[in-house]
Write a structure and sequence with these properties.
323 residues, alpha/beta, two-stranded antiparallel sheet, 11 helices, binds ligand PBG
């Protein structure tokens, strides 16, 4: 036998030397749910260890994450029902609590990366990502709302805008609106291949943002399709996206790899709420080991080609891998 692959696995030192994929806190983007209620720290049933943070206490939470080495955060607003309307107009209202949190965090922690979510659903009384009329999700009339929302976030100091709505043409529309107002340094990470997935359940519970009627299949992608993901990627690239995101991550590792191999932009992945909940359920049953399974999951997403990973595991990973 001339070839014995086991020789390269002989010791930890050798294994570490030839490792093809690295995973560290610098790759992780931690999602935070923020509310308008000072002092709030409420649990989310299907996301053990994840909380809705009041707009003041979220500062302490970010501080503790920064101490653990986390550098990147994505913020989601939990908007009370009475502030929702069909146009999601609270999203671009002056100094709404979400914008307030962006400004405060950027002031307290100028070194961190802050990412936003741009879509109507957290603010919409219909629970859809776009404007709804007679049961139809209107594409072109949604775009100006997304642009207003993005501008408000840019003004508050966000580093990266994250359009998660899947309307056609939104990346270009938002890019033009930002440039016109001088926000040429505000980046766009587009949720470019976002699938109509069953894995978003716990997130919708956290935000109370599930669609009031119908589903999201006329704008989010069919899980059966991969070529279509490339089409979305090319369009977002032409429209000026700085990074492309695939969402969810685990059932779509092939899509991450395909987009990474066929575009010149950094690809990121969203390891979504249902993927986090699944592991926690198995750990609670005593069927899987939390730390090693989580690390293997994150490593697999990196191996597929993702640079950054949005993941609810970020803080626990940082805690386990403290140097
Ligand atoms: C909303 C949005 C969703 C998620 C992120 N942004 C839900 C949806 O599209 O219905 C899901 C994230 C997760 O499940 O962790 N535009």
């Amino acid at each position: 036998m001339y070839s014995r692959p086991r020789r390269n696995r002989k010791s930890t030192a050798i294994r570490d030397m030839i490792k093809e994929t690295q995973i560290g806190v610098e790759h992780l983007i931690y999602p935070l749910f923020v509310t308008n209620n000072p002092g709030e720290e409420s649990r989310i049933d299907a996301l053990p260890g994840i909380y809705r943070w009041g707009k003041d206490v979220v500062v302490k939470e970010v501080e503790s994450c920064v101490k653990l080495g986390l550098k990147h955060f994505v913020l989601f607003p939990v908007v009370p029902e009475e502030l929702k309307d069909s146009k999601g107009s609270y999203s671009y209202q002056n100094n709404n609590f979400y914008l307030e949190v962006i400004a405060t965090l950027k002031k307290e922690f100028p070194q961190i990366t802050l990412m936003s979510d741009v879509a109507l659903d957290p603010y919409s009384s219909d629970g859809h990502d776009g404007l709804v009329e007679d049961g139809v999700i209107l594409n072109d009339r949604t775009l100006p709302i997304l642009a207003d929302m993005s501008l408000a976030q840019a003004q508050a100091g966000i580093d990266i805008i994250g359009p998660s709505d899947m309307m056609d043409g939104r990346v270009g529309y938002i890019r033009e609106a930002l440039d016109e107002k001088g926000y040429t340094d505000t980046a766009i990470m587009s949720y470019c291949a976002k699938y109509a997935s069953a894995f978003y359940g716990p997130f919708r519970e956290a935000l109370d943002s599930a669609p009031k009627s119908g589903d999201k299949k006329t704008y989010q992608m069919d899980p059966a399709n991969k070529k279509e993901a490339l089409r979305e990627a090319f369009l977002d690239m032409e429209e000026g996206a700085d990074m492309l995101m695939v969402k969810p991550a685990l059932s779509y590792l092939d899509v991450i790899q395909t987009i990474d191999e066929n575009t010149t932009l950094p690809v990121t992945a969203y390891n979504v709420s249902g993927e986090y909940a699944m592991l926690h359920a198995a750990v609670e049953k005593g069927w899987l080991d939390y730390e090693s399974t989580m690390t293997e999951i994150l490593l697999s997403i990196r191996r597929a080609g993702a640079k950054g990973i949005l993941t609810y595991f970020a803080k626990d990973f940082a805690q386990f891998h403290r140097s």
